Amino acid sequence: MPKIIDHKQRKISILRQAFALFAQNGYQNTSLSQLAGSCGISRPTLYLYFRDKEEIFTYAVKYYTDEMFSDYRDVAAKSGPVLPQIRR
Q1: What is the per-residue pLDDT across 41-56, written as a single tens digit (0 to 9) for each?
Q2: Which domains does the chain have, with CATH numbers?
């Protein structure tokens, strides 16, 4: 029976791993081979989701920026002092 893959979840997983590798190694020192290996996929599979390293970087930064703003919106929607909530 073929393995069922949640493509949206895999793409998010790739972005999270890419962000971690870029933060650890820097953009220039992170290869697509490293990224694919750390995700447990092949480079050709990586190219099914993204055109190139630049696109992965762009989407990874956007993903985390969106997550951060979502967290801040959640904090702003709650009642009470905002600063202690942000620090958490």
Answers
A1: 999 999 999 999 999 9
A2: 7-87 (1.10.357.10)
